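Let's do one together. I've listed all components of the complex below, 343 residues spread over two lines.
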Amino acid sequence: MQHIAWLKKPIIKFIISLVVVLAGIVVIRLISEDHTAEVDGFIHLTMIDLEGETIFDEDIPFYQGDSFYDILDQQFDLICATATYAQDETCSYTFNNFAYQGKVILGIKHDDVEIVSNWSNTFLAFYTHHESEYVLSTVGPSNIPFENGDRFMIKHEHVGE
Amino acid sequence: MAINQKTLIKDTALIAICAAVLLAQQIAFSFLPNVQLTTLLIVIYAKTLGFKRTSLIVIIHVLAYNILSPFGAVTPIHLPSMFIGWMIIPFSLATFLKKVDSPLGLAIFGFIFGFIYGWAYIPAQVFFIGSPLIPYLMMDIPFEIVMGITNFLTIYWLYPPLKTSFAEQLQKFEQKEKNDGR
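Okay, and this is what the predicted structure of the assembly comes out as:
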């Protein structure tokens, strides 16, 4: 590439850098979607414990404006992670960094059954039904997209399974 | 001791030091996803040390990072992706980008590399982990943009002074080697 003298000037370098950063921010903003319900509806949820037993397999309702986390929060007693991944039954902490914005769910309690991760050896894996099979969700529970009739599975798994 | 043996020992030490610097900064920046100086350093190593020595640095870095990282190793199926991802830099700079040496040209390469590095993980993620391709691609775009911007800014601003400084130190190191050999 030809060496252009004016490109050496710090002010030009600064402007080019600023343009690159701003363009990146704009693109990230444009592709970031808000995954909340536009209308009321139902999703089908299956929950499986560490032994592979199905402990929940029902349709649960959602309402306009709900996120996937909100649906679970309305239906179950949740245990969330604090900033240091300690268990918090109030679910008051929300992660808000670049890598992840939202809640981290460590446990779900329903009637007399519960699946609770100890975070060291086990975790809750969230699966979405894609085409004909369940696939691991690529985002956390606050950002999982859903529509009326979608199917989901939450599985308590050992790390490295 | 024969000169060749001395050279070999010095080369080994140089590669180990460069790999250690690479590892230390990557661990130091681990809390910021995709923000690192790894791309900048590998570009500088590739431009000053050449393809062979940089490849060895990358091999050591990938193995050491996965053994020593306090944030945990990547899963074994991701290891080839990580290795191939980082090896793209010395390979590109030793072949079709051999003549590119301007900060802007390398910064643009660094920006594009941010995306290519992310794509290197797609085969393992889709075929072994089972993630759906399109949602995974979409989810990864913000991280690729962050890596691209980090690469662009660090190379554009820090490549000229760091390369000069590193080349000077390397020259002194190699000069001393020649003097010792007399």
